[in-house]
């Protein structure tokens, strides 16, 4: 890097709303990390409100966004407006979207005080690293100050998170917090969550936060999450927010801390951060450490109740003896309990816990060891875990939250049967890939044998001068190859002349549900030229013939790559009447235009990003720029009726295709209701 950072630079990175192009932003933030920046990464499909809330809570210098989905002008402008409204106009905004953001739009955004939108031309002139260095260098400024904001926040937060965030930044930079409050007056419980890297601590934390906010509707919560800094570069990936979905609540606050050259799994400013959250009167505080190994138990110095998160894949049973936290943790969470061997792992952990605590007579279900699947919605194990944690807090801190939580009796071996993909089928995609690969290898093997047979057959047919011994040896080789050729493959080769003859006829006949259907095999073009509907390859080699039949073949024949029916229905021109822009009325007019005079109606609908992601297209500025953009907006049954008005959806010659992602069941229901209403 051509310059040295003068300050600790913190940047929020994300892909814009409805944008799944996370590969680009992942490359960008990795380079930012290598330049020494601390990156709070949010992942893809993030709204303006989420990004701004995160930027303020984390007290960052910059926001870097990729936007490939359109609506970027409204998106970036709203981001700037929201930052200004909340007194955080000092936060720099950077963006890019390949060629999707036009030069005129870039100029417009720059004039609106967006710091920098990078174009393909910038990439050619500056290079990727040059653009990243420009971002990091622009963000290299101090944030020290008391955070005296004159205007109230507009994000609906219970506490002024701007001031809390700035106080934590100050202590990280060696300045006093200046909270001015005695944090010992009110007893505020602190839960410490630690565990191995990749155990799912962030997912478990998110589930606890969700249950706390839902169970205690008048309480607030703060989460302090620590991730390690790179010793070589000083950069860090503070990526816990990727897994956090519940912290967007006005009653929740989250701050990510980097260890900053600390050899522990915690930042040296953890205690100050906890005290600041206590001074802000948060009712419950969670401290999540960086992923640790077996020996680190430093989190115990800062918390009232501790929880250790692990997975069933800890290795040999002897490894359990090395885990310090099994001596001290108030609750042990065995996460990812859908993994193979989870029950055996639970049994081993319980045995080790009994040894460590000399609880020889304790029943298994009485031990504070719970199996969970945090990635599963409303997991019974997590429900039990949350209840155990609240009991421990009441026992050790004498703090009982007023609210209602559902009591969950101990489930058998804490195992949940409601997994979306059963454990035995977790490899189903790999199995499909393996099956296809094995089939392709088999096709190559069989077609190679068929080619050799074709060559031998030609040699035996044409070489009349060969001696009897040579002919006999060639016949033996041919017989051996014929034994290796599968009967089905031999049949395909032998029936090839019949296939050629079938498609030379004027009409093609086939049966569907015992009904003989007769269709012409040719059609006449506008110039009067007679064209065949199906053109067969002019192969002679048996290997080529076999390979084509096994991997392509004619329509209606295995492997059905050309379609599941021999021919399309008569009177149905294969015209895809594609439409989708703006509201349903506009798209309906387009449908009527493209289908005018056609005997069959083949309506193909493109939906906007808002519809595809299942969001409510109510007026919300970060969504507004994308409603009806690059697709039609359909949000109700009435919209579906307008979309297909004037078309008989039950007519055999009417077909409808819909590009649907997440909300497929809802849009299908819209369609069915529209069709039923027509009748």
Compact summary:
Helix 20 (637-643) crosses helix 21. With 679 residues, this protein is α/β, with parallel strands linked by helices. The mean pLDDT is 86.
3D structure, described in words:
By secondary structure, this protein is α/β, with parallel strands linked by helices. Helix 12 (428-462) packs antiparallel against helix 16. The strands form 5 sheets. The protein has a 7-stranded parallel β-sheet, sandwiched between helices. Strands 5-4-3-1-2-8 form a 6-stranded parallel β-sheet, sandwiched between helices. The mean pLDDT is 86.
- Please count the helical segments: 21
Q: What is the topology, as strand order, of the major beta sheet?
A: 9-7-10-6-11-12-13
Number of domains: 4
Q: Based on DSSP secondary structure assignment, what is the total number of beta strands?
A: 20
Descriptive key words:
single chain, 679 residues, alpha/beta, Rossmann fold, 4 domains, seven-stranded parallel β-sheet, six-stranded parallel β-sheet, 21 helices, 38% helix, 14% strand, globular
Topology:
Layout: E1 10-15, H1 22-34, E2 38-41, H2 48-58, E3 62-66, H3 72-85, E4 92-96, H4 103-111, E5 116-118, H5 120-138, H6 161-172, E6 190-195, H7 201-215, E7 221-227, E8 236-238, E9 252-258, H8 270-279, E10 284-288, E11 305-310, H9 325-328, E12 331-334, H10 342-357, E13 369-371, H11 380-397, H12 428-462, H13 468-484, H14 487-494, H15 496-502, E14 507-512, E15 515-520, E16 522-524, E17 530-532, H16 542-551, E18 577-579, H17 584-594, E19 601-605, H18 609-612, H19 621-624, H20 637-643, E20 654-658, H21 664-678
Parallel strand pairs: 1-2, 1-3, 2-8, 3-4, 4-5, 6-10, 6-11, 7-9, 7-10, 11-12, 12-13, 18-19, 19-20
Antiparallel strand pairs: 14-15, 16-17
